[in-house]
Amino acid sequence: MSTVLVIGAGGVSSVCVHKMAFNPDIFSEIHLASRTKSKCDAIAASVKERAGVDVATYEVDAEEVPAMVKLIKTVGPELVVNLALPYQDLPIMDACLEAGVDYLDTANYEPKDEAKFEYKWQWAYHDRFKEAGLMALLGSGFDPGVTSVFTMWLKKHKLKTIRQLDILDCNGGDHGQAFATNFNPEINIREVTAPARHWENGEFVETPAMGKKVEFDFESVGTKNMYMMYHEELESLAKFNPELERARFWMTFGDEYIKHLTVLQNVGMTRIDPIKYKGQEIIPLQFLAAVLPKPETLGETTKGNTNIGVIATGEALDGSGEKTFYINNICSHEAAYEETGNQAVSYTTGVPAMIGSAMMVTGKWEGDGVFNMEEMDPDPFMEMLNDHGLPWQVKEMDGPVDF
Ligand code: NDP
Questions:
Q1: pLDDT tens string 309-340
Q2: CB-side neighbour CA atoms (13 Å) of 105
Q3: Atom 32 (ligand 1): residue with closest C-alpha?
Q4: How far, in Å, CA of 91 to CA of 207, rounded?
Q5: CA–CA separation, 327 and 324 (whole Å)
Q6: Which residue, 38, 132, 170, 285, could crosslink 218 as a Cys pair with Cβ 3.0–4.6 Å?
Q7: Which residues pair with 203 in a beta bridge?
Q8: How far is the CA of 83 from the centre of ligand 1 (A)?
Q9: Is any ligand 1 atom within 6 A of the Cβ of residue 12?
């Protein structure tokens, strides 16, 4: 039984708060705060209707550390669950340190003026959390999050070491819009337009964005083009699996998405540096995000499945030589919407955020300091995935990937 304070009221938060409310034996009191209180109230109303649970709501600017500290002290939670944007990670971590409470998030800190996707800023908080006897868990979404747990589960149960790793993120959903992103547009477009980077022989190799495309047949989706890109879990996976010879991340994009993105990029709409417009400074990508469909409005029209997983090749634990395993989850947009009122991209992130929170408040995962998912025992987390809407499957493949 525990009290949690969730920050942010977008699609991911909505799923996580619903899932917490469905598990009152773990989360006895849920508090929800964000920049726009009406969005918290809308989530609270849906939770009341679907789960019969009351969620207390507040307005807060998470970048204002004193306001966050005051809110944390008023609520008295065991854990602060940061489901706002990556820009707020450090101020929320500062507030947690000052108020003496544990912290969890789903995306690494990003400076507003540079697309970096690096853990260095948050790893630098390790000693302060350790000295305070507090725990911070980083990246408890799907990717990062479940992909790291999948990898460590394979390493615990199937492979002694991992030589090659490929993360395959397929969204086979169709939302019926010409162009929209399935999670925060600003963060999504920053990720996609950044140069690709993959881990090879002890270092990151940089290649042009969207420069490598491969066709892959995804179960329950069909054949899709996937593109190699950088994703933040490559950094923690490489750190905690030093034997890795190669690790890559792939995401599927339809031709329409690529066409729109190329035009937007060519005309400068994806820039993240400020420009002067009518005497005011604006950031083109933030303006674009404001005019694009809000991800939380896509739920009703999105049909199809996501299929996200990890293919790992390495020396088998049982001494039978080199083996390759594919471990993945398939999630239906329609089923996610039916259960929580949100599409599967929010669902596949919000459920692991709830499970990571459950791991921390029940003490199944504990420690003093700042931790990545790779450092924790994968088993209890994997068990909860099966029980809470994200069942996974693992199968052996004939050999390593040939792309
Ligand atoms: P949304 O943009 O839908 O929601 C973000 C929420 O944060 C909004 O409610 C927003 O408020 C709030 N917010 C923004 N700034 C502040 C602030 N200064 N103070 C308080 N609240 C603030 O994003 P998503 O729900 O799609 O994503 C949430 C997080 O999950 C992001 O960090 C994203 O990167 C991450 N993510 C992780 C994934 C993973 O697999 N690991 C996958 C997908 C997303 P307002 O409503 O006023 O705008």
A1: 999 999 999 999 999 999 999 999 999 999 99
A2: 23
A3: 85
A4: 33
A5: 10
A6: 170
A7: 200
A8: 5
A9: yes
Cα distances from 294 to residues 83, 181, 288, in angstroms, run 16, 8, 11
End-to-end CA distance of the chain: 47
Distance 192 CA to ligand 1 centre (A): 17
Q: Is 95 in the pocket of ligand 1 (CB under 6 A)?
A: no
User: Ligand 1, residues 85, 342, 390: which to mutate, most atoms within 8 A of Cβ?
Assistant: 85
Please work out whether the CB of residue 63 comes within 6 Å of at least one atom of ligand 1. Answer: yes
User: Residue 379 — φ and ψ, nearest 5°?
Assistant: -60, -50
pLDDT band at 296 (very low <50, low <70, confident <90, very high): confident
Backbone CA torsion sign across 337, 308, 232, 71 = positive
Cβ–ligand 1 distance for 378 under 6 Å, the answer: no
Q: What is the pLDDT of residue 45?
A: 98
Going from the C-alpha of 241 to that of each of 23, 51, 197, 228, 244, the distances in angstroms are: 34, 41, 17, 20, 6
What integer best gives the mean pLDDT of the chain? 96
What would the mean pLDDT of 274-295 be, rounded to a whole number? 94
User: Whose Cα sits closest to atom 41 in ligand 1?
Assistant: 141
Q: What is the rounded distance in angstroms from the CA atom of residue 337 to the CA atom of residue 334?
A: 5
Question: Measuring CA to CA, which residue among 135, 152, 140 is closest to residue 93?
Answer: 135
pLDDT at residue 103, rounded to an integer:
99
> Could you please report the per-residue DSSP string of 57-94?
EEE--TT-HHHHHHHHHHH--SEEEE-S-GGGHHHHHH
Confidence class of residue 143 from pLDDT cuts 50, 70 and 90? very high
Is the interface score ipTM higher than 0.95?
yes
Indicate the top mutation candidate among 349, 351, 357 to test ligand 1's pocket, ranked by most ligand atoms within 8 A of CB: 349
- Ligand 1 centre distance from Cα of residue 398 (Å): 40
Q: Which domains does the chain have, with CATH numbers?
A: 3-138 (3.40.50.720), 146-341+387-397 (3.30.360.10)
